[in-house]
Amino acid sequence: MDGGRVVEFTASAVVTGRVGHVFDVLTDWPRQSAWVPATVVARAQDSPVAAVGERFVGTTTLGPFVLVDAMEVVERRAPERTEGPGSRGRVRIVKTGDVLGGDVVIVVAPAGSGRVRVEWTERIVVRPRWLARLAALGGPLPGFVGKLAFEAVLRTASDDLRGPS
């Protein structure tokens, strides 16, 4: 992509809920602030909502370190509202920041008996050379940590994803 270090992972979970509701909640970007530790997600003021072209930023603060992760929705296919077996939703986001590039794909699909399978795949390109070298030292560890972290995020989000009865 940009010649940086690539970190890839897929986090998955099966949650109780309706496919359409799970998709709507997961793609309500500011709502993720409640699930992602030390992170505030904000939509750009002039951005469309729930559409291709939607832009948002996740800002993570850990002590003196601040990471700004700018993103834009480049593909958005909401699931059919019929909730049948073919009802799948998919969103693809491109990371547009100076530090992190790459993309994110979130797919939701029925898993039977009022359950929904969520797959969250990230392909992160670490751009600054010094940070890319540091990430490379970790070998597969950054991807493993990313997978565990986003599985924890999905567990934290499970009550919101369940939605109203």
Structural summary, described in words:
- The chain is an alpha+beta fold and 165 residues long.
- It has a domain at 5-27 and 72-162: Alpha-D-Glucose-1,6-Bisphosphate, Chain A, domain 4, CATH 3.30.530.20.
- It contains three helices and seven strands.
- The protein has helices at residues 19-26, 129-137, 141-162, and strands spanning 5-16, 39-43, 55-62, 65-77, 89-95, 100-112, 115-126.
- The chain has a seven-stranded antiparallel beta sheet with strand order 1-7-6-5-4-3-2.
- A hairpin with a 2-residue loop joins strand 3 and strand 4 (65-77).
- The model has no long low-confidence stretch (mean pLDDT 93).
Write a compact overview of the structure shown.
With 165 residues, the chain is an alpha+beta fold. It contains 3 helices and 7 strands. Strand 5 and strand 6 (100-112) form a beta hairpin.
